[in-house]
Amino acid sequence: HQKKFSFYHSETNEPGNTAGFHVTGLYELKNGQIWVAANSLKLFDPNQETFSLVGVKPYQNPYLLSEGQNDQVLLSSWREGLRVLGSDGELIAQFKADPTKNSSLPGNAARLAFKDREGNIGVVVHAEGVYRFQPEQNKFLRHPIIDPVTKKEFGTWYQTIHQDRRGNLWLGKDFHLIKLAKNFEVEEVYNISTYQLHEDSAGLFWIA
User: Which helix (H) or strand (E) covers residue 204, if one does?
Assistant: First the structure.
């Protein structure tokens, strides 16, 4: 039995042609669909080996995809803030920076999105830190990540975020892998630069 890799390449920006020039995120829905974050958000058809747009109009500047509430999908972005999509690609909500509202995000570079153990959505905003949406207050609250040794903030730049099967949140950045407690206090710190974190079926972490 011969195994092979299939390579999908784009030479144009035409919607539905191929995935795009620069793929930043992949996500498998519970129904088996594969969404691809590239020059826009696209759906891969494994039978035809073709790509089509997700939604009725292109979602520009997609970055990463992650699980949201009730089968929703969180779409992070460098320029468009955080978008919440239904499994059919419909835009349910979008959170962006709005200088007239103190409840808005501080910036539109929402690089990483996550769902915490209570089901609330959160986002890591580039150069601004970690924020979690408080539905009862209808606003995003900032959670500074404090080093328990130095009592100083670890910084505002993070490369990855992961919620493990026990509901714990992990943050990865240069020089550190950080485990957070329920109240977002730092529980454990490992001195290893972490850019991607994957948990396999045995519960073991694979760190890039």
Answer: none
**What are the tens digits of pLDDT across the range 10-21?**
655 555 444 456
Neighbours of 104 (CB within 10 A): 16
| Sign of the Cα pseudo-torsion (30, 27, 155, 200, in order) | positive
CA 90 – CA 64 distance, rounded (Å) = 17
| Sheet arrangement for strand 176-180 | 160-163, 169-173, 176-180, 186-190
HEC readout, 138-184: CEEEECCCECCCCCCECCCCCCEEEECCCCCEEEEECCEEEEECCCC
pLDDT digits (tens, 9 = 90+) for 75-134: 999 899 999 999 999 999 999 999 898 889 999 999 999 988 888 899 999 989 999 998
d(CA 56, CA 145): 38
The mean-pLDDT minimum among 58-62, 85-89, 93-97, 191-195 falls in 58-62
Q: pTM (2 decimals)?
A: 0.87
Burial status of residue 28 (CB atoms within 10 A of its CB: 0-12, 13-18, 19 or more)? exposed
Q: Which two tokens stand for residue 12?
A: 């144009």
Cβ atoms < 10 Å from Cβ of 208: 11
CA 81 distance to own-chain centroid: 11
